[in-house]
From TrEMBL:
It comes from the Bacteria. This is D-methionine transport system permease protein. Keywords: Cell membrane, Membrane, Transmembrane, Transmembrane helix, Transport. It comes from Thalassobacillus cyri. SUPFAM superfamilies: MetI-like. Belongs to the binding-protein-dependent transport system permease family. CysTW subfamily. It is a multi-pass membrane protein. PROSITE patterns: ABC_TM1. GO terms for cellular component: plasma membrane.
Length: 220
């Protein structure tokens, strides 16, 4: 068994790195695009300071449309766009395009849900004092939801790990690709078991770090 593990180690390291690349890119795009999108969904809601039913409605429909498509179908559907954007449809960078598209609406809804927990009275008091929309977002909404944002990123990262494993089944690389090529096609139970253990460890570490940061920020 140890000899098998040593032989597998180079492939395991490569797959682990590819999975990290996919998750990191997807998470980064989710944060950059999903955070403002989630805030937009919140502040344009009814009875809020930037209420706009058209923006809220159109944005909500687009977010729901993307979320309603199963990831494996979304991955194949985006092949032409992925090829145009990065010049290939295989590899971790190519797979991260679909991962990013899936992560944006997912995280946006988490941001919106976190913002809904804010006491409306605090926002109304700020409006009464003449605070600008940007000031309300920066000094009231954002500080109140920091812990929720970190928890949301943790949930998104764990979901992306699962999505990256699916991406590996059709040429995305990563741990999923290793499990399919060696564990499934070659009927190698040791490889399958090892990849499952590695995925479990990754999820546990991310969850622990995310929970720790969320609690730290909430106390601060």
């Amino acid at each position: 068994m140890m000899d098998q593990f040593i032989t597998l180690l180079p492939e395991l390291n490569k797959s682990f790195l590819e999975t990290l690349i996919m998750v990191a890119i997807g998470l980064g795009v989710a944060l950059i695009v999903g955070l403002p999108l989630g805030l937009l969904l919140f502040v344009t809601d009814r009875d809020l300071f930037l209420e706009n039913k058209w923006i809220k409605g159109v944005t909500g429909v687009i977010v729901n449309l993307v979320r309603s498509v199963p990831f494996i179908i979304l991955l194949v559907f985006l092949f032409p766009f992925t090829n145009f954007l990065v010049g290939t449809t295989t590899g971790p960078v190519a797979a991260s395009v679909a991962l990013s598209v899936a992560a944006i609406p997912f995280y946006a809804r988490i941001v919106e849900a976190s913002a809904r927990d804010i006491d409306r009275g605090v926002i109304e008091a700020a409006i009464a004092c003449g605070a600008s929309p940007w000031l309300i977002i920066k000094d009231i909404i954002f500080p109140e939801i920091k812990s929720g944002l970190i928890s949301g990123l943790t949930i998104t990262a764990i979901s992306l790990i699962g999505y990256s494993a699916m991406a590996g089944a059709i040429g995305g690389g990563g741990i999923g690709d290793l499990a399919i090529r060696y564990g499934y096609y070659r009927y190698d139970n040791f490889v399958m078991f090892t990849t499952v253990i590695l995925l479990i460890v990754m999820v546990q570490v991310i969850q622990y770090v995310g929970d720790f940061l969320a609690k730290y920020v909430k106390k601060g």
